[in-house]
Amino acid sequence: MKLTNRSLLVPSLMLLFLSVAVSLSSGAVSIPLKEIVTIIGGGGSETNRIILLSLRLPRVLEAAMVGAGLSVVGTFFQGLLRNPMADPYVLGVSSGAAFGATIAIILGLGVLGVGFTAFFFALLTISIVYIIAKNGPKVTMSSMLLAGIAISAFMYSVISLLMLFNHNELSRIVFWTMGSFSLTGWNDVFFSAPLITAGCLIMYLFARDMNAIITGDEIAEHLGVNTELVKRVVLSVGSLITAASVSIGGIIGFVGLIVPHIARLLVGPDNRILVPFSAVFGAIFLVVTDTLARTLLAPAEIPAGIITATCGGPFFLYLLVKTKIKNEGM
Amino acid sequence: MKQNKALFFLLILLLVLPVCACSDHPPKQNRESTPAGPVVIGKTVYPLKVRDFMEREVTIEKLPQRIVSLSPSTTETLFALQAGSRVVGVTNYDDYPPEVLDLPKVGNFKGPNIEAIVQQKPDLIFASDKTGKEQIEVLEKAGFTVVMLQARNIAQTMDSIRTIGQITDSQEQAHTIIQDMNNKISDIAAKTGSLPRIKTYYLVYASGNYTAGSDTFIDELITLSGGENVAGDMTGWVKFSLEKLVEINPPVIITSPHAGDLKSIVTLPGIKETKAVKEGNIHMISNENIVTRSSPRIVLGLEEMARYLHPEAFE
């Protein structure tokens, strides 16, 4: 069984490569694959060079990066919280980021400022959740979850209040929360790529321990897993990845929730295999989504978050009905 | 939380719907709101019957003395018509002329506040298409006279001014204002008409690269000032592809303080590569209200726009 699972890896990677190639060539301005090769080789028309190298390439890379990051975090959070509903945003990171972005937009801090403030408040929020949920040396996941939900609710009501008082900025705030990669540049990639890659690798080191933790903390302890350490690392690194993703792309929903489930359906629950597949599928999913965002109404764009929710939701329901996922599959 | 999501959803709908729906309802040009026949300027005779922008006939019994205005553009028009002293209630978003800041507030973006309106004992309420049909119904059930105004282009703006002038017995002022507006428009047409059309991009928000398509004042102003709106074949407010912008490479970009800080806008990838930024032809309209509100000030927006598009015509 393991063998067939692993044999999916090559086709998956090929699919990722294909979707990146298609994504690079399509958009409001279509650039044939041949010209892409020429441009990368240093030739091509000036306009298409700018479009490909300073707009589209960073954007596609960032979408792949964020898709992979959110899916890996989602996989780990679902395991850690033993909850199929968990996603990277469940602990309140996204509400913190949205709060930060709202403040930055109201203060008129510019695009870079919005990203930075969102990142800062995302981390601040998760720290508050962690401190609240901490009980002595231990962190119970259920209090983490509850604290996260409560803080999210609070944050969103403050955001609504801020929007009420700053009606002029209301649409900008709403647009930000819908999520999009339309303004992603190389700066964003340089900032987030090392964070997300390193973060995912660190989390992957705990894939085997995670398998044990899913069956229960006590069993894991008996198997020699330092559950508290794993929890702490997964929570902090996962939150860092999520904060970086959200600060660049806005709140792109559904990726971190459904991609882990899809991957689980295809390759089973063993995290050592599941995590890399989640990463690849997440990258494919968001690259495709962003391509649709750029092309469906071109030259107008659709915020990517709307597409992930409208395509992801029904597709996930279809999978649910078709396979009748049982919670034990977690 | 649930309420929040509902609010978000509602907002998204509000923002997205006009974009989709507008193409089905092209703006009605030169809509007649006054009774048919030659336009006679004179004293208004009450009771006056007006057909408003919701195709309803509203009877105004006598000269309104206590007017509530539920839209900043109507307030601006009332003050321009020298009927400002009879305005007893405005919305939170009213800011022009400055004296309206001290007037009682009877509405915010959630709509009119019925209690606050009742307290002002108005004999006439001007609503706008943004007020909401349900809200207008509630106000009418409460026994108020409500006139609905709507203006999505300059012709409709002039119709509104005419209607408000008629209702408030300031037909002469309305006539003068409209004449001044028409003069300004033809003056600018005369200056820029023979010049080449300048491809122009209007940046509404830097975050997300939103622009204004057709069926907006901005599109109309660009056209009237001798420009060609890059997003003219799209409708309403749209998120525009930066890639397409680079390909079109417009020589002029116009924006407003609302879009963000000009210094950071010119560094954005995609925007910084345009001819407009490279040649220093990205300009900020002094106040976005003069390019978005259906008030007599819209011609000020027109003039600013024309000066940015064709500076040579104003030397």
Largest interface chains and counts: A-B, 47 and 38 residues
**Order of the strands making up the biggest sheet of chain A:** 1-2
The tally of beta strands of chain A, per DSSP, is 2
Quaternary: heterodimer
Output the number of helix runs of chain A: 15
Number of strand segments of chain B: 14
Q: What is the end-to-end distance of chain A?
A: 18 Å
What is the count of DSSP helices of chain B, taking H or I runs of 4+ residues? 12
| Overall pLDDT confidence of chain B | 86
CATH topology of chain A: ABC transporter involved in vitamin B12 uptake, BtuC
**Would you list the SSEs of chain B in sequence order as H and E?**
HEEEHEEEHEHEHHEEHEEHEHHEHH
| CATH level 4 superfamily of chain A | ABC transporter involved in vitamin B12 uptake, BtuC
Q: Kindly give the count of domains of chain A.
A: 1
Write the layout of secondary structure elements.
The complex is a heterodimer of chains A (330) and B (315).
Chain A lengths: L1 H6 L1 H17 L7 H8 L5 H35 L12 H15 L2 H24 E2 L2 E2 L1 H25 L4 H9 L7 H19 L2 H9 L1 H6 L4 H23 L5 H13 L3 H25 L8 H20 L7
Antiparallel strand pairs in A: 1-2
Helix pairs in contact in A: 2-4, 2-14, 4-9, 4-12, 4-13, 4-14, 5-6, 5-7, 5-8, 5-12, 6-7, 6-12, 9-12, 13-14, 13-15
Chain B lengths: L1 H20 L26 E4 L5 E4 L6 E3 L2 H9 L6 E5 L13 E4 L2 E2 L1 H6 L4 E5 L4 H9 L4 E4 L4 H14 L3 H22 L5 E8 L4 E3 L4 H8 L2 E3 L7 E3 L2 H7 L3 E4 L6 H4 L9 H4 L3 E3 L4 H4 L5 H12 L6
Parallel strand pairs in B: 3-4, 3-7, 4-5, 7-8, 9-11, 9-13, 13-14
Antiparallel strand pairs in B: 1-2, 5-6, 9-10, 10-12
